[in-house]
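Fold it.
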Amino acid sequence: MDVNAQVRDPREHINEEPRNDLGDLMNGFFGMTAFMTVVFFGMVIIKFITE
């Protein structure tokens, strides 16, 4: 049985640069928090305008 399989170790991180994982996590968290805060206050303003 001749199988031509190329096996790679998934720990190689071929398409990923795991240098600043904590910074990426913090940017994502605070970015999403800021976006949701803007959406919340936008909805509050729209609610007061329509009343």
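The radius of gyration is 23 Å.
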